[in-house]
Amino acid sequence: MLYEEKIIADWSADMYEIDETGTEDVAFMLSCLGATSKRILEIACGSGRILVPLAKTGHTVVGLDVDEAMLRKIPAKAEGLDNITWRTADAIEDDWGRGYDVVVIAGNFLMNIVSEEGPERAQQILMEKARLALKPGGMLYIDYNHTFYPEQWYVYPGERVIWQGTDNYGTTGRMLLCDSTYDAETGLIQSTRRYELETADGEKIRKEMSSVKHFVSLEQIRTWLAEEGFCIEDEYGDYAGNPIGETTGRAIICAVVMEEKK
Ligand SMILES: C[S@@+](CC[C@H](N)C(=O)[O-])C[C@H]1O[C@@H](n2cnc3c(N)ncnc32)[C@H](O)[C@@H]1O
Fold it and tell me: How far apart are CA 241 and CA 194, in angstroms?
């Protein structure tokens, strides 16, 4: 990894820890998983925000993520637990293993996946790999940002500060999202992510990266899941358990696979 990329990855991991402290999604997930202890794989577990509470509740959990700076946050939170493991892996390129009771694709990872495959194909591959990793009767749990009006959510000109602050190494600055557009034909959301950082040594880093995400409609996710042989058991639009509707902001889907894929 280049020096500049490492500074950005370390700073981003610390900003994620400071900003993304939600627990509502985890509590709702736990209520859907039931009381019996399960073998759970979380794809893109990041800093363990979801993975660690799942382990603390008694589930046996495995997490994988491509970002080592994020994974480095887990050991301190997982101290004393012997039912949690994690590893560096690319969700598209690498093997997930087999025989899981539950695969978790949450924290909006479905929309945030980064892959050479391009976002839409990568999302579909996630469904294929989840099916392979689950044992018969196993459940895929998906939670992502969903709206019936993506053109209202994702189109905004100008700049928005997403993160601002100083990390544990003394690097300080901000990350902005600029000029987000949405194409209703392709479902692609395009924007520029700009980092404006200064290290503790006074070195200035300014980096722009283009970001392309793909909005997954309800119809599309239902089709992908059906194609992989999943049966959708439950769908919710928020953490109060309301159905997906005009005013809800998420798609939370519990889908069960009936046969192991050969
Ligand atoms: C928004 S974070 C979610 C982390 C965690 N699930 C949570 O909810 O707190 C998205 C994570 O996806 C990871 N990620 C993105 N593309 C990936 C890929 N192709 N393979 C594995 N992890 C990936 C990033 O490194 C990041 O940790």
Answer: 36
Strand stretches in 75-155, DSSP E: 84-88, 100-105, 134-145
Neighbours of 30 (CB within 10 A): 16
Nearest residue (CA) to ligand 1, atom 4: 46
Out of 6, 21, 112, 125, mutate this one to test ligand 1's pocket (max ligand atoms within 8 Å of CB): namely 112
Q: What is the pLDDT of residue 185?
A: 96
From the CB of 25, is ligand 1 less than 6 Å away?
Answer: no
CA distance 255 to 95: 21
Ranges in the chain, pLDDT < 70: 1, 259-262
CA 252 – CA 241 distance, rounded (Å): 9
The token pair at 44 is: 């893109």
**C-alpha to C-alpha distance for 128 and 136, rounded to whole angstroms:** 14
pLDDT for residue 2:
80
Q: Does ligand 1 have an atom closer than 6 angstroms to the CB of 49? A: yes
Q: Per the structure block, which two tokens stand in for 7?
A: 């500074």
Of the candidates 203, 202, 208, 199, the one whose C-alpha atom is nearest the C-alpha of residue 172 is 199
- Interval between CA 115 and ligand 1 midpoint (Å): 11
pLDDT score recorded for residue 90: 98
Contact 70 CB / ligand 1 (< 6 Å): yes
